[in-house]
Design a protein that fits this description.
The protein is of the alpha+beta class and 221 residues long. It has a domain of 76 residues: SH3 type barrels (Roll). It is built from six helices and five strands, in the order H-H-H-H-E-E-H-E-E-E-H. Strands 4-3-2-1-5 form a five-stranded antiparallel sheet, covered by helices on one side. A hairpin with a 6-residue loop joins strand 1 and strand 2. InterPro entries: COV1-like (IPR007462). Pfam families: DUF502.
């Protein structure tokens, strides 16, 4: 083998090894950086409000990363626990009644509360199913998140179709923060087995990260 092919072969090996290492290290480094940044952000918000006598950083020669985040989690959990009893519910209703009297604040509060209740409600089926719908024209398929059954005036106006109508959110690629909201007959949707998390990865990657899917033969044991 002459010198030129040897150098080309060596350069190819080095490039392939670099790309393999990058695939391994980049996601790990980004995950650690995002996690560390979130912990520092939470600590910077919570630690100033912790009394000095309860803050271990006042007695130790080093800082404790995540202590503020831990305090925030405990505080939020205690608020949720207290809000479930009679006195807590009364306090929450009183606070909400004050917010509802503020013209701009009440709109913002109601919207945010409704979003969090919809997303975090364990009984909700919002964005827990993925399907394919024909969009933007027949014969062209796109992935959408099935949020809920259509109710209210929209369901009444579409009642002449004689079919069950569901709400489908069509996010764009690669940043699924906006999109189209469609009202589609349930019979027109091809449901997928993939989870919402896998579908989100698929969309963000532009179709490069395809979820694994295997069919088990019916005669297999």
């Amino acid at each position: 083998m002459s010198e030129a092919p040897k150098r080309e072969f060596l350069a190819t090996r080095i490039r392939n090894n670099f790309l393999t290492g990058l695939i391994i290290c980049a996601p790990l480094a980004i995950t650690i950086w995002l996690t560390w940044s979130f912990i520092q952000w939470a600590d910077s918000w919570v630690n100033p409000y912790i009394p000095a006598r309860y803050n271990p950083e006042q007695f130790l020669p080093f800082a404790i990363p995540g202590f503020g985040l831990l305090v925030a989690v405990i505080f939020i959990t205690m608020v949720g626990f207290l809000a479930k009893n009679l006195i807590g519910r009364s306090i929450v209703r009183f606070g909400e009644s004050i917010l509802h009297r503020m013209p701009l604040v009440r709109t913002l509060y109601k919207s945010l509360k409704q979003i969090f209740e919809t997303v975090l409600n364990e009984q909700s089926t919002s964005f827990r199913k993925v399907g394919l719908v024909e969009f933007p024209s027949p014969g062209m398929w796109t992935m959408g998140f099935i949020s809920s059954d259509v109710t209210g005036e929209i369901a009444f106006r579409l009642s002449d179709t004689g079919e069950e109508i569901v709400t489908v959110f069509i996010p764009p690629t690669p940043v699924p923060t906006a999109g189209f909201l469609l009202f589609v007959p349930k019979s027109k949707i091809r449901m997928l087995d993939m989870s919402v998390e896998d579908a989100t990865k698929f969309l963000i990657s532009g179709g490069l990260v395809t979820p694994e899917y295997g069919l088990v033969p019916s005669d297999s044991k």
